[in-house]
């Protein structure tokens, strides 16, 4: 599925070369582009333009990218893809915990970025109050708390179901280990409990007939968390 034609994208990055590259490439993909070079202007533009998606550099001078993210998240759930330096894994996790939808590491390939943009926009398009989530042959009925695969009921423990619900409800987005622990176990967890996640994800993959080396549903983001994959369209 292609992203909607004319989707508005706001780029907040202090490097003119990056903004120029993004402008040329994304306009060629039929996106409508807006840009600014600092965080304060970025927050203002986000409120004026009402973009469909924001690309945000974390390494901004003045108001930091993290502060921009948190400011925008006070009033908007617009998809935000952050740009980070290669060795800033802690920044990626902090940004995702702070409400970013995805990240791309500099230097990045434009093909990868465009693909991430399309996934983020598709996630928004699929966001609905519909109590039944469908992913190809997998169905998650949130009202009945039932999961079916290829027409057959999948028996899950309450914890396995809660984990699948969190991941599937946020399909296309990266959910960090901290977010999963918080949403599944509440306040009764520690960062060191991340081994529980590996165990339960292993159980889920087995019950969903997943090949861990080529997942259809649950993809591991090493050192960060997990992403529930949207089916190719």
TrEMBL record:
Gene3D superfamilies: 3.40.50.2300, 6.10.250.690, Winged helix-like DNA-binding domain superfamily/Winged helix DNA-binding domain. PANTHER family: KDP OPERON TRANSCRIPTIONAL REGULATORY PROTEIN KDPE (PTHR48111:SF50), REGULATOR OF RPOS (PTHR48111). Residues 130-230 form the OmpR/PhoB-type domain. Keywords: DNA-binding, Phosphoprotein, Transcription, Transcription regulation, Two-component regulatory system. The modification 4-aspartylphosphate is found at residue 57. This is Two-component system KDP operon response regulator KdpE. Residues 8-121 form the Response regulatory domain. The keyword Plastid does not apply. Residues 130-230 bind DNA. Signal peptide: none annotated. The keyword Transcription applies. SUPFAM superfamilies: CheY-like (SSF52172).
């Amino acid at each position: 599925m292609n992203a909607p034609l004319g989707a508005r994208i706001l780029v907040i990055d202090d490097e003119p070369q990056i903004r120029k590259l993004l402008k040329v490439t994304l306009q060629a993909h039929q996106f409508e582009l807006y840009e600014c070079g600092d965080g304060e202007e970025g927050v203002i533009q986000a409120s004026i333009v009402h973009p469909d998606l924001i690309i945000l550099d974390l390494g901004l001078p003045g108001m930091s990218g993290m502060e921009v993210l948190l400011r925008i998240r006070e009033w908007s759930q617009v998809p935000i893809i952050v740009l980070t330096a290669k060795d800033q894994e802690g920044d990626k996790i902090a940004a995702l915990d702070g409400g970013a939808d995805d990240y791309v590491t500099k230097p990045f390939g434009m093909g990868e970025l465009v693909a991430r943009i399309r996934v983020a926009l598709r996630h928004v398009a699929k966001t609905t109050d519909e109590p039944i989530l469908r992913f190809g042959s997998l169905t998650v009925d949130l009202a009945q708390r039932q999961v079916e695969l290829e027409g057959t009921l999948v028996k899950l423990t309450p914890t396995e179901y809660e984990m699948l619900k969190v991941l599937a409800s946020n399909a296309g987005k990266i959910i960090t280990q901290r977010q999963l622990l918080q949403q599944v176990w509440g306040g009764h967890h520690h960062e060191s409990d991340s081994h529980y996640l590996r165990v339960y994800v292993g159980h889920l993959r087995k019950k969903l007939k997943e090949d861990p080396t080529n997942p259809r549903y649950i993809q591991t983001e090493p050192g960060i968390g997990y992403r529930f994959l949207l089916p190719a369209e």
